[in-house]
């Protein structure tokens, strides 16, 4: 049975103990930002561990993975290390104490070094005045700190582990021997003959990091080589983000027969059909999503409301919006719910409800320029030019690039000017 979850909810030491006590055999894959690692077990003992693009032995790889306090893990039973990979036999319990000590120290290091894409240069004038001895690790790093290599590059080219490099840099930073230059965004790559699991983990990590072009390349390769349904599903998600609706439909349809979550796939497929204007298909798909377990998902209820609104069935849209609202129990609905709820109110000539919804929306989501624009437009319809001006000005402060806000502000200022002229006319006469 596969075991998966979030490292925020279950720490890596807890997961290792669980797998050790259960005498499990298989691969524990871990992803964190744009990196991922793997720990292999043989009857509850660690037999191999590695991190992509990190030249670490098994023990140091595990110690480094202890520093990953967020991200995801997934255990696949029966999966073995690649042929030729270094094999050991280590009781996880023997690594936990040292791992805990290193994590305690790492918590101090990461306050100075929050990311491995940071680039440093040396403050050579200050370094020349130093009379205190440097550690061997610091001495090894000095020739490599050139203002071009990021910390990933220092780890790679020094042959030192992440912890040793981090500890060495921490000391150099405290002594003010380093100057931050900037950040260097890198794309992780896989070793040759990587397993499908490793390739999928890398592609997923790229997707979560927002590196969609790189993720697209990896997912396409998985689909072409192994017809991977998870990869097909992610191709659909990337197509949605890139507003390529027809490719999104094709990818979701390809993934459908073997999809792990039919409800999630149907939800996204309905969204793609809606954007294509194929509303009847969107309606059929979102209804299937609702009947297959999605009725308790507020986002699926919201998508059903949008489809009903597009079809002109405003009563059904109101019902779905109400259902979605009732499912957001711990917080206010997201901005998109207010957006469509106010639209339905406007389409049914309920301007009072439209105003109430938009006022509540901008109070709950003051950072949403789109909602402020909608509020400005609603004020304009009611002839409230001062209210429209205030809302449009707030929106432009957040998103000066939105042309709708500029048009609404212009209309509001013109309305205010007309009202002022009208008020002054009796005085002139």
List the helices and strands and how they pair.
Blueprint: E1 3-6, H1 12-21, E2 26-32, E3 35-42, E4 45-51, H2 58-65, E5 72-77, H3 92-112, E6 118-122, H4 124-128, H5 136-141, H6 151-158, H7 162-174, E7 178-183, H8 196-208, H9 212-226, H10 229-241, H11 245-255, H12 262-276, H13 279-291, H14 298-310, H15 314-327, H16 335-347, H17 351-364, H18 369-381, H19 385-398, H20 403-428
Antiparallel strand pairs: 1-5, 2-3, 2-5, 3-4, 6-7
Would you kindly provide a written description of the structure presented here, covering whatever features stand out?
The structure is a single chain. The protein has 429 residues and is α+β, with helices and mostly antiparallel strands. Among the domains are: 3-110, no CATH class; 118-183, Winged helix-like DNA-binding domain superfamily/Winged helix DNA-binding domain (Arc Repressor Mutant, subunit A); 345-429, Tetratricopeptide repeat domain (Serine Threonine Protein Phosphatase 5, Tetratricopeptide repeat, Alpha Horseshoe), CATH 1.25.40.10. The chain has helices at 12-21, 58-65, 92-112, 124-128, 136-141, 151-158, 162-174, 196-208, 212-226, 229-241, 245-255, 262-276, 279-291, 298-310, 314-327, 335-347, 351-364, 369-381, 385-398, 403-428; strands at 3-6, 26-32, 35-42, 45-51, 72-77, 118-122, 178-183. The strands form two sheets. Strands 1-5-2-3-4 form a five-stranded antiparallel sheet. The mean pLDDT is 88.
SS-derived structural category: alpha+beta
What oligomeric state best describes the polypeptide chains here?
A: single chain
Span of the ends, CA to CA:
88 Å
Strand percent estimate: 5-15%
- What is the approximate shape? globular
If you average the pLDDT, what whole number results? Answer: 88
């Amino acid at each position: 049975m596969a075991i998966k979850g979030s490292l925020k909810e279950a720490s890596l030491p807890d997961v290792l103990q669980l797998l050790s006590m259960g005498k499990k055999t298989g691969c524990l894959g871990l992803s964190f930002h744009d990196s991922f690692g793997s720990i292999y077990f043989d009857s509850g003992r660690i037999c191999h561990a590695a991190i992509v693009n990190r030249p670490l032995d098994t023990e140091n790889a595990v110690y480094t993975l202890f520093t990953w306090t967020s991200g995801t893990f997934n255990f696949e039973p029966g999966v073995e290390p690649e042929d030729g990979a270094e094999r050991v036999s280590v009781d996880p319990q023997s690594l936990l104490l040292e791992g805990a000590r290193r994590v305690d120290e790492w918590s101090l290091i990461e306050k100075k070094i929050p990311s491995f894409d940071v680039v440093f240069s040396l403050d050579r004038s200050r370094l020349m005045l130093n009379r205190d001895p440097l550690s061997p690790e610091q001495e090894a790093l000095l020739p490599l700190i050139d203002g071009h290599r990021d910390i990933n590059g220092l780890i790679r080219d020094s042959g030192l582990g992440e912890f040793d490099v981090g500890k060495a840099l921490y000391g150099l930073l405290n002594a003010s021997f380093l100057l931050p230059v900037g950040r260097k965004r890198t794309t992780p790559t896989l070793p040759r003959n990587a397993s499908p699991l490793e390739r999928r983990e890398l592609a997923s990590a790229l997707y979560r990091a927002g590196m969609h072009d790189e993720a697209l390349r990896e997912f396409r390769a998985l689909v072409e080589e192994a017809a991977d349904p998870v990869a097909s599903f992610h191709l659909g998600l990337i197509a949605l983000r890139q507003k390529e609706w027809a490719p999104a439909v094709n990818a979701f349809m390809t993934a459908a027969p073997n999809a792990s979550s039919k409800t999630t796939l149907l939800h996204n497929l309905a969204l793609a059909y809606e954007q294509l204007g194929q509303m009847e298909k969107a309606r059929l798909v979102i209804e299937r999503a609702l009947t297959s377990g999605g009725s308790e998902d507020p986002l699926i209820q919201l998508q059903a409301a949008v489809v009903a609104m597009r079809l002109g069935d405003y009563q059904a849209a109101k019902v779905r919006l109400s259902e979605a609202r009732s499912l957001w129990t711990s917080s206010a609905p997201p901005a998109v719910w207010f957006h469509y709820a106010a639209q339905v109110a406007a389409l049914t000539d309920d301007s009072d409800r439209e105003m109430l919804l938009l006022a509540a929306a901008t109070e709950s989501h003051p950072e949403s320029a789109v909602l402020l624009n909608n509020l400005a437009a609603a004020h304009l319809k009611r002839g409230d030019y001062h209210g429209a001006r205030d809302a449009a000005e707030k929106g432009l402060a957040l998103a000066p690039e939105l042309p709708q806000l500029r048009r609404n502000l212009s209309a509001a200022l013109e309305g205010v000017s007309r009202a002022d002229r009208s008020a002054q006319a009796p005085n002139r006469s």
